[in-house]
Amino acid sequence: MSINASPGASTDETLLDLYKLVAEMADRISVRRGKANAYFLAVQTTLATVAAALPATPLTAAAELALALLLSTVWWLQLCSYRDLNRAKFRTVLALETRLPAAPYTDEQAALPSRFLELGRTERLVPWAFAALHCAVFAAHIAPGLPGVPG
């Protein structure tokens, strides 16, 4: 990483300011990710509620399933994008810490247990859990109309 200090500013001050900026940007990405999760959770919940209130026809069930799977896929892709962006930001933070007197993020990483389950891993399962739920609802809606299935 290259640092271009402004005239008259010490490199240490510039490094510290840059460190603060990058750490703040990484935190903002996490906040945006949380808001996106809340949005997708609300949309998925609303979709499930509306689907439950509509008459259970094969057409409405198929439309609900298609929309739910699209939403789940977009949600998952967005989470992957946020993960990659955050990973890049924290690599920058960790690189800056090698040039500063303290390294809190490096220390935090070292303090985590070896079997630490990253929140992002479980977070990325949620869209697929909703997809599975919608598939089950779809199957329940169309099963009574299938030959040989009592209903």
Note the topology.
Elements: H1 11-53, H2 58-97, H3 104-111, H4 119-123, H5 126-142
Give a description of the structure.
This protein is mainly alpha-helical and 151 residues long. It has five helices and no strands. α2 runs antiparallel to α5. It is elongated, with a radius of gyration of 23 Å.
Whole-Å distance between the termini? Answer: 66 Å
**Beta-strand share of residues:** under 5%
Helix content bin: over 70%
What general form does the structure show? elongated
Order of secondary-structure elements: HHHHH
List unreliable stretches of 5+ residues.
Answer: none
Overall pLDDT = 86
Please give the count of helices. Answer: 5
Q: Total number of β-strand segments? A: 0
Radius of gyration: 23 Å
Structural class determined from secondary elements? mainly alpha
Q: What profile does the largest beta sheet have?
A: none
Notable characteristics:
single chain; 151 residues; mainly alpha; 0% strand; elongated
Give a concise summary.
The chain is mainly α. It is 75% helix and 0% strand. It is elongated and about 75 Å long.
